[in-house]
Design goal:
By secondary structure, the chain is mostly helical. It has one domain. The chain is built from three helices and no strands. The protein has helices at about 1-30, 30-55, 75-95. Helix 1 (about 1-30) packs parallel to helix 3 (about 75-95) and helix 2 (about 30-55) runs antiparallel to helix 3 (about 75-95). The longest helix is centred in the first third of the chain and has 27 residues, at about 1-30. The model has no long low-confidence stretch (mean pLDDT about 85).
Length: about 120
């Protein structure tokens, strides 16, 4: 079970790295509205995955117990949505954080001396 959880975390991390680079590229191209729209859709998918995982949203055709980790039950659908949407949401949200420019001066201000 721990191995499966490790693979799920690895999949979410890879998706977040991929989403971070795509979002950073879009932000550099001044496509901010596109990034915000994608972030809203990914946030809705993440919330839906959390609600499915916790059992708040259960459909009549869902199995109440699954032996397989990815059966057609409400828990397993929630995990799928969380890995797919949650990892991508995290990468996109991190890309929106202000980035510090690498350079010699950390404050960015130039101090001039008067002689």
């Amino acid at each position: 079970m721990i191995l499966i959880i490790g693979f799920l975390v690895l999949a979410a991390a890879l998706l977040s790295i991929f989403a971070f680079h795509i979002s950073a590229w879009c932000l550099n191209r001044r496509l901010n509205i596109l990034v915000y729209l994608v972030l809203a859709a990914l946030g809705a998918g993440t919330v839906y995955g959390l609600l499915r995982l916790s059992g708040v949203i259960v459909f009549p055709s869902d199995h109440t117990w699954s032996v397989d980790f990815f059966d057609a039950s409400w828990r397993d659908d929630g995990v799928r949505f969380l890995v797919l949407f949650g990892g991508t949401f995290a990468g996109t949200a991190v890309a929106l954080l202000p980035r510090r420019h690498k350079g010699g001066d950390s404050s960015g201000a130039q101090i001039e001396e008067k002689t």
